[in-house]
Amino acid sequence: MLQTALHFSHTLLKEVVEPGASVVDATMGNGNDTAFLAQLVGSKGLVYAFDIQEAALINTEKKLTELGLTEQVTLFHKGHETIEETIPTETSLTAAVFNLGYLPKSDKQIITKPDTTKKALDAILTRLKPKGRIILVVYYGHTGGEAELALVQDYSQKLPQEEYSVLTYQFVNQRNNPPILFCIEKK
Ligand code: SAM
């Protein structure tokens, strides 16, 4: 069976993230991607995870504690637009993941936004290792979602093909705006 965009995002991360790697979860939410990345990097690796909602940090901390994965993770209660000043420039990132949209079962007004997403992408790209990947799973059915999808499409299509490969993964016959996955890989 074909993988959902969410499942495929983990497959793409698993292919490149090795023990000891430094990675980013740009939209922590309930910590599913944070925990997945923490498992991949192991105790010698580093996961930088960001969210603007306190509830996200509480839920993620709880999940990581239950799984015994707190050692390799740093949770930031701030937006991913602060990555430029938060993650040292000399840090080499193997991967970053974004789940764009709102946190399910919480305030639908708190959504990721094009300008802050762009700022985060710029900062991550300068730190991304060769063969490193940025995965964006874009939910766009909510108010404001189309604008963010347009930003991600425009941003990724403009990346020079000599330096980056970009793919999208999307079900084109499903109802209710299923998420679209983008993967940016540095050559
Ligand atoms: N990956 C998450 C998980 O495993 O549960 C789901 C992420 S949810 C679709 C999007 C998250 O982005 C929300 O938790 C929201 O608070 C967060 N968010 C919104 N704006 C943000 C920003 N500027 N920086 C970081 N996170 C942000």
UniProtKB/TrEMBL annotation:
<dbReference type="GO" id="GO:0032259">
    <property type="term" value="P:methylation"/>
</dbReference>
<keyword id="KW-0808">Transferase</keyword>
<dbReference type="InterPro" id="IPR010719">
    <property type="entry name" value="MnmM_MeTrfase"/>
</dbReference>
<protein>
    <submittedName>
        <fullName>SAM-dependent methyltransferase</fullName>
    </submittedName>
</protein>
<dbReference type="InterPro" id="IPR029063">
    <property type="entry name" value="SAM-dependent_MTases_sf"/>
</dbReference>
<dbReference type="GO" id="GO:0008168">
    <property type="term" value="F:methyltransferase activity"/>
</dbReference>
<dbReference type="Pfam" id="PF06962">
    <property type="entry name" value="rRNA_methylase"/>
</dbReference>
<keyword id="KW-0489">Methyltransferase</keyword>
